[in-house]
Here is the input.
Amino acid sequence: MKAKVCILRTAGTNCDAETDVAFHLAGAETELVHIQQLISNKINLSDYHILAIPGGFSYGDDISAGILLAVEMKHKLRNTLEQFVSDNKLIIGICNGFQVLVRTGLLPGIGNNSSQENTEIAQQTTLAMNTSSRFECRWVDLVTQLSPCVFTKEIRSSIYLPVAHAEGRFTASTDVLTELEANQQIVFRYGNRSNSFSDRTNYPHNPNGSDADIAGICDTTGRIFGLMPHPERYLTKWNHPRWTRESLPDEGDGLAIFKNAVEYVKVNFS
Amino acid sequence: MSNKVNEFQILNADDDELMQISREGTLSLNLKEMQTIQTHFSKLQRNPTDVELETIAQTWSEHCVHKTFKCIILYSEEGKETEKIEGLFPTYIQRATEEIDKPWCVSVFSDNAGIIEFDDTYNLVFKVETHNHPSAIEPYGGAGTGIGGVIRDSLGTGLGAKPILNTDVFCFGLPDMPYDELPKGTLHPKRVFKGVVSGVRDYGNRMGIPTANGAILFDSRYTANPLVFCGNVGLIPRNRCDKSVEPGDLVVAVGGRTGRDGIHGATFSSAELDDTSENLGSVVQIGNPIMEKKIVDALLQARDRNLYRSITDCGAGGFSSAVGEMGAEIGAEVHLERVPLKYDGLAPWEIWLSEAQERMVIAVPPENIETLKDICEAEMVEATVLGNFTDSHRLQVFYEDEIVGDLDMDFLHKGLPQHIKEAIWRLPQHKEMPSRDNDIDNYTDDLLRLLASPNIASKESVIRQYDHEVQGGMVIKPLVGVENDGPSDACVTTPVIGSEKAVIVANGINPKYSDVDPYLSAASAIDEALRNITAVGGTLEKTALLDNFCWGNPDKPDRLGELVRAAKACYDIATAYGTPFISGKDSLYNEYHDTTTGEQRAIPSTLLISAICVMSDVRNAVTMDVKSPGNLIYIVGNTYTEMGGSHYYGLHGFIGNTAPVVRPEEGKLTMDALSDVINSGLVRSCHDCSEGGIGVAAAEMAFSGGYGMSLNLENIPTGERITSDDFLLFSESNSRFLVEIEKQNQDSFENRMVDVPIGCLGTVTETPEFIITGLSDKRIIEGSIDILKSAWQTPLHT
Here is the structure.
């Protein structure tokens, strides 16, 4: 069975086209779906296996990044989303999508599974303004952590992707950080090639000042995944900033993330 | 007549009164134009309404109709007979394109942007605009709406192009200018710089368009008149490039609501600034990029379903100019009370003229209106029927069922009186600077100072604030090299992901040479833009140009003389290189009048040339960072003693008289041959020689690649005898490149470049030392690449 991907759009979404290409290259069937189409029930989320929330500036990131789309999803699509999650389907949020997932509380979602009926899913962490106080676009090394994340299964120990954001500093209380660590929910940390990825990572290798160098996390099941870097922007070697001087594989580091998702659907939903 | 409409009493006005009406209404109409309007309305035996006179003023403004580029010019040069030029635009720009006659030019100078062919499915559109006056007063809003406006130009070309790339070029005053020297009523260059960058960043990033090419220049003469050039490239299906309007089609406004923002923007930008201009806050518009994104999302769907026949953006002059232009050949009728407003209280003429942002006008056949409205509703965008196109050949404006404006389309679009302007050109004489070879031991310090000068120093802190990766197609980024921080010559992007077909965008701009001769400045700007295209793997054969002139007051004969010089160069050099102009724009009256001192300051005559090239295989692209120790460094192209306007002279307080000449026969041969060797894979890196000459270019290649270089000036091919090290090092002669070649390819490279002057200067070294040996066998530059790089990176770091 071909994996079906719902690529969610709203006003200000702007990485939908390349996310669409990425899932296509990974072998999925995709559709760009405006959130109004889900809210009005013109399109059913249950027809899809994967929900992708791409990058952009949803509703201008007014108030703060991702918050308005998160509120809309929580209040207008709550049951739909809960059903989607309990059907063991996949959700990925990239950049603005990650910000949305964090603000809905779907990530890190500690304790969400045990929560009572009708309790509010709470936001436990945030993605705050970069320590540089501004938008930055640069390529970063990511160190893959041991985690249950479906999207990064058997991925290389370190990969290279671009970030482009102003609000990407992952921040959480010590308790939450400890729990993330214990649950192996940290999927990617920013690293520093020249430091052989040891120690804490300094700016600009950690581009936004994230706590514990966290670049991406998953929920405890590994089926909901959010990250600030953009895997859809490194699909072939021609995307790499140094392809003119390094020998690189033809396939970009980002593609494996989409392939893993498609493979999961193939194994679990056929 | 509605009490919300006033008449301008012009019928019985004398000349003084006519000019008073023009001035007090910020109409920017001159006496001859006011008299022409008076005569027209005398025949009608009535005074014009405010809606009518304002509409004419917008339509006839320099900003909208480019009078200076179309008027007759009597041009005199010392010792020569006066020349009568029947319009700079037809004579030098349009004619160049016609004579070059490239079959891949799809639409030039007629639509909101130029269109060229891309592949079997798509064409490309490209437009560059300026937003100078607004950015001087309110940098953030001015620059943001500048980029917003040019994106709408792409969306308003053909039946609408998808924006795929932004370019931005800024000219500011010196960032370290003392506050007490600031002209009255102007903002400090640093504040303008910060505001402009933030404005462009926030608009472009939110729209999801990569900003991947640009330049930032500094000169004290830009303090009161900063320049903000914003460009956009769009991708459009080949079968969506034509537009038409038919009587009965609905006039539909799509996008944001109308408020009092930006009234008189077009006429305001057609006047000089002074210390009271800062009070004109309402002429600057307010941007909302998310609204614009929604419009793009909605209209591209409507375009693909063929729901409308024509589209244009509401830019300068608002609805008055958008509807006036679309209906120029047939007529239109508009009902202003239907326009959705941000707030109550707007007079009809304000609704009609408002330059509120993020609005498009489309011509919709009535049978499609419901489908169109559905699409807009789904994307949360307002679409409102304002009226319809007619066959009356009149522009008829109603407000609450009363006619408040009724203009003959012919008079509106063809009634502008022909102007004759005088232009004078006199070659200035500047002091020359002798070579400093006998005075100093080495030029290491000069090189460090050049690298650290704001015009040359790294712009990384700005570039990183722009998202240059969004849309996933950027293949050669603005920053390249081992640490991703070297200065790329051009950007290369693949708008169709998975295809090897690519677009290269580059620019050239040399206002310093204008101090010597604007002809050389313009010629060099074209050469520089083409060098940048060539350096990354493009070809002249597939390159088109855009011209953006920013000048002082063209009513002053000396300013206009400089404009004539530059226009002549555009024709000469573009035809010689075979690279057509496909679009252009001018922004004149960039002058500041200091009412306390009476001083009049004009900007340096500034021509920005933007170049766009279609590259057939992106895999052949190269970058400017050196790749491996042991490789050979060649100079390609002749060096001349052309120090006039150079950064080296500038460093020592000189201008000089011999600015770089363009020798297009030599230049074309060089660039064609180099394109050929690059596309054959023989070149490991390539960098054009521009600001700071060979010295700066070689240093940038070395530290961007993380290796040293050992070079000797001895083998530099020269077009004339040059015996001074500093002139060889820092001359800014055109059509030159530095290239890196592997030793094993030395013979094939030299064989293929046999018709081009080349010289092997030395090698890339493992040791990170940058060493240049002069003609007398002495080390004239010696320094570690880390020190050079840090000199280049530090000045504009924050």
